[in-house]
Design goal:
The protein is mainly α. The protein has 7 helices and 2 strands. Helix 6 links the parallel strand 1 and strand 2.
Length: 171
């Protein structure tokens, strides 16, 4: 970040800011958001000048980062993308049963990995958390747990190819 050119100029040399940017770029990649898509989002939010400026600054950093590492280095998210593309070809995957546990939510990039494994493996089982029915919002509004359950059902449809004969939400 160049001095005085950025909304982040006052914090550009702080370790916590560098860590935050690293985490932000990782998260953008986990959600398959490219630098160009981030720039488009900033444009769509132009009426919120501060948010738009922050997104444009993050775009600039993200774009320069991608240019700097392209063809020279591979980060964790790029490794994960490569694994997603090759997982179905691995002989051990084709003869394996997988259990995936400990996630409340799967990012699109992780979901792609589960889908690729499910397409090739003998079986893939995913255990996800939820709330008991008596913890639901009594107003009838959809709770975060309800939304997560709907996402889990969508995920089960994708993993199982549309058949949920082995899928149920346990509460």
């Amino acid at each position: 970040i160049h001095e005085n050119e950025s909304i982040f100029a006052s914090v550009r040399n702080k370790r916590s800011f560098i860590t935050m940017l690293n985490d932000q770029i990782s998260e953008l990649k986990q959600y398959n958001i490219t630098p160009q898509e981030l720039r488009e989002m900033a444009g769509e939010l132009a009426e919120d000048e501060i948010l738009s400026s922050k997104l444009n600054d993050i775009y600039d950093i993200y774009e320069r980062y991608e240019s700097a590492v392209s063809g020279r280095f591979t980060d964790t998210e790029d490794h994960q993308q490569a694994i997603n593309q090759k997982i179905g070809d691995a002989p051990f995957v084709k003869r394996s049963i997988f259990w995936i546990d400990g996630f409340d939510y799967l990012t699109p990039r992780l979901m792609a990995m589960v889908e690729a494994a499910a397409a090739a493996a003998v079986e893939v089982n995913v255990v996800l958390t939820g709330e008991a029915d008596d913890a639901a919002d009594k107003t009838g509004a959809r709770t975060a747990s309800d939304r997560a359950d709907a996402e889990h059902i969508d995920m089960a449809d994708v993993i199982s190819g549309g058949g949920r004969e082995f899928f149920e939400i346990s509460r």
